[in-house]
């Protein structure tokens, strides 16, 4: 059984706290401020922020707080990422329901970054799924791939945050120019606060993922690092 990394528990706590603030902010903005209830336009930010960003961030943190074996952590990580991927695909699907045509909303930097981040996330999930269920491959191959898996995962998470920020800016610009929403009104302040919350969450989650490890491993679960912090032996 693996031990919990107590040195990172404060980061996990602050990640959860900032994630809660983000979730409350996007729920308040999407469901209460427009006074239009659930619709395709309100489902999109809910699915992409809560379903995609928050759930995938929790999947990253799984390895830092969940007790148990590496196999258990990898299984929970995999299925949480699957939920995040499904939410992202459904969130993109909501943007196809407009009278101007199927691709009417896929013209901006926000839409292009969104398609890129979800595509990378999907490819990452497929490779992780294949690696989890096909464990007979050569160990050195898995060891070589691990740093790339971590890098691409964190890069995609950061890209998703950046995509959300561009979406918030795009939406806020539309509200202020087309609908005359006051720049210091409640909706503008909520959107700006949501953007700051996402930026804070991104920093905390990535910090928890990349800071040096202080875990003690026992039994068959061993992870040995060289002086360059590259894995030399990664047990199954």
Automatic annotation (TrEMBL):
> Needs which cofactor?
heme b
What is this entry's stated membrane topology? Multi-pass membrane protein
For this chain, one GO molecular function annotation is: metal ion binding
- Secretion signal, residue range per the UniProt entry: none
What superkingdom does the record give? Eukaryota
Q: Where in the cell is it found?
A: Membrane
In this chain the Cytochrome b561 domain maps to 14-210
Any single Gene Ontology cellular-component annotation: membrane
Query: What Pfam families is this protein classified in?
Result: Cytochrom_B561
* Keywords linked to the UniProt accession: Electron transport, Heme, Iron, Membrane, Metal-binding, Transmembrane, Transmembrane helix, Transport
Question: What's the EC number here?
Answer: 7.2.1.3
- Which parts pass through the membrane? 12-31, 43-63, 75-93, 113-133, 145-169, 189-211
What's the catalysed reaction?
Answer: Fe(3+)(out) + L-ascorbate(in) = monodehydro-L-ascorbate radical(in) + Fe(2+)(out) + H(+)
Q: Which residues form a coiled coil?
A: none
Protein name as it appears in the record: ascorbate ferrireductase (transmembrane)
Species, as recorded: Arabidopsis suecica
Specify the taxonomic lineage: Eukaryota, Viridiplantae, Streptophyta, Embryophyta, Tracheophyta
